[in-house]
């Protein structure tokens, strides 16, 4: 069985982040991932790193669908493939109504249809076909317009597409159309909650589940104080459960509920929305902080790596603990050694 891949979250906007990215590339990580929330964009940092790194793949984690037209996203992806020598991965996701409607001014409507149509349009453009698309969200050329079905002026190029997905419908879409999955809120002990919909959809359209790169986000921290570290990571989930979504819809909460934490998460959300954030943090089960991350001694973390691998995860996208870049690189080096030892 192949060793599990290690990817790293990076922000090369400051010297420490740049050093981490370049050194992680030198150490042989699977890929480097640039975030996009409501600060920096995900693509520009990777264009910079394309000229600073040699072997690591470069992924957006994640571009927010609706913030750019599908054609512009395809153009950016093609530019990144050219600049990186074919190392680019387009990681994308629907985000949520708070960001899309509050930040981008785009209605968060029909996210599954928007995701499907965006993938279809990107594939059309990158194949070199004329862009004609009959869709609910993106009818192209626009009806009753002077628009024309245009073909890209550049050569066709393959662009791997990874979907950030948590709900069953979006997971099924991943299995049907995507090259990889970007996951979180994931416990390897209940991985089938995520993988069963992906596998079923892939098989339904004649694809192999094994061909997908299944990537899960974790934090990595080597420590002898396992309980204390797990508690700190659990506390951090209070914001996720209480604020990353509305009172009616929170994709993260739903994902944990499907893994058996429904009552706990509902109580955390209630406390947060009532304004008692300290109580909300204390109410998050320590088990969540422990089992969704790599926390503990090298032996314990090696055991967790094996659990992820045996559950079907192929790559872990890691946020590295450490007070400075040297400490983070030490964590990364040890983690890479442990992951390779599983091969």
Quick structural overview:
With 343 residues, the protein is an alpha/beta fold. The protein has 13 helices and ten strands.
Molecular structure report:
- The protein is built from 13 helices and ten strands.
- The protein is α/β, with parallel strands linked by helices.
- It folds into two domains: 271 residues, TIM Barrel, CATH 3.20.20; 66 residues.
- Strands 1-2-3-5-6-7-8-10 form an eight-stranded parallel beta barrel, surrounded by six helices.
- Helix 7 links the parallel strand 7 and strand 8.
- Helix 8 packs across helix 9.
- The longest helix is centred in the C-terminal third of the chain and has 23 residues.
- It is globular, with a radius of gyration of 20 Å.
- It starts with a strand and ends with a helix.
- 46% of the residues are buried.
- The mean pLDDT is 96.
Tell me what the CATH architecture of the largest domain is.
Answer: Alpha-Beta Barrel
CATH homologous superfamily annotation of the largest domain: Luciferase-like domain
The tally of structural domains comes to 2
**What are the low-pLDDT stretches, counting only 5+ consecutive residues below 50?**
none
Roughly what is the average pLDDT, rounded to an integer? Answer: 96
Strand content: 5-15%
Tell me the number of strands.
Answer: 10
List the helices and strands in order: EHEHEEHEHHEHEHEHHHHEHEH
Strand order of the largest sheet: 1-2-3-5-6-7-8-10
Which geometry do the CA atoms define? globular
The total count of helices amounts to 13
Cα(first) to Cα(last) distance is: 6 Å
Helix/sheet category = alpha/beta
Which topology of the largest domain does CATH recognise? TIM Barrel
Summarize the biggest pleated sheet.
8 strands, parallel, barrel
Rounded radius of gyration (Å): 20 Å
CATH class of the largest domain: Alpha Beta
């Amino acid at each position: 069985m192949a060793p599990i891949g290690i990817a790293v979250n990076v922000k090369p906007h400051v010297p420490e982040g740049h050093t981490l990215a370049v050194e992680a590339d030198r150490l042989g990580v699977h890929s480097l991932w640039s975030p996009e929330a409501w600060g920096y964009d995900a693509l520009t940092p990777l264009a910079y790193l394309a000229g600073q790194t040699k072997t690591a793949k470069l992924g957006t984690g994640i571009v927010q669908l609706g913030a750019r037209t599908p054609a512009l996203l395809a153009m950016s992806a093609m530019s990144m493939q050219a600049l990186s020598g074919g190392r680019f991965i387009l990681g994308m996701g629907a985000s949520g109504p708070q960001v899309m409607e509050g930040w981008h001014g785009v209605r968060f409507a029909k996210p599954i249809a928007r995701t499907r149509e965006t993938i279809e349009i990107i594939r059309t453009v990158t194949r070199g076909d004329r862009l004609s698309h009959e869709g609910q969200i993106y009818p192209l050329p626009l009806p009753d317009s002077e628009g024309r079905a245009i073909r890209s002026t550049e050569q066709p190029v393959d662009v791997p597409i990874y979907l950030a997905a948590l709900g069953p419908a979006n997971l099924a879409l991943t299995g049907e159309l995507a090259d990889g999955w970007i996951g979180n809120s994931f416990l390897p002990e209940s991985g089938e909650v995520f993988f069963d919909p992906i596998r079923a959809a892939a098989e339904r359209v004649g694809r192999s589940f094994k061909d997908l790169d299944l990537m899960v986000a974790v934090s990595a921290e080597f420590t002898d104080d396992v309980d204390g570290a797990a508690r700190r990571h659990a506390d951090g989930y209070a914001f996720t459960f209480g604020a990353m979504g509305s009172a009616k819809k929170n994709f993260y909460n739903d994902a944990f509920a499907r893994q058996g934490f429904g009552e706990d998460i509902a109580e955390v959300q209630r406390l947060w929305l009532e304004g008692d954030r300290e109580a909300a943090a204390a109410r998050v089960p320590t088990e969540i902080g422990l089992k969704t991350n790599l926390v503990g001694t090298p032996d314990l973390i090696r055991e967790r790596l094996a659990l992820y691998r045996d559950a079907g995860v192929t790559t872990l996208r890691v946020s590295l603990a450490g007070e400075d870049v040297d400490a983070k690189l030490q964590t990364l080096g040890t983690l890479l050694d442990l992951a390779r030892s599983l091969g």
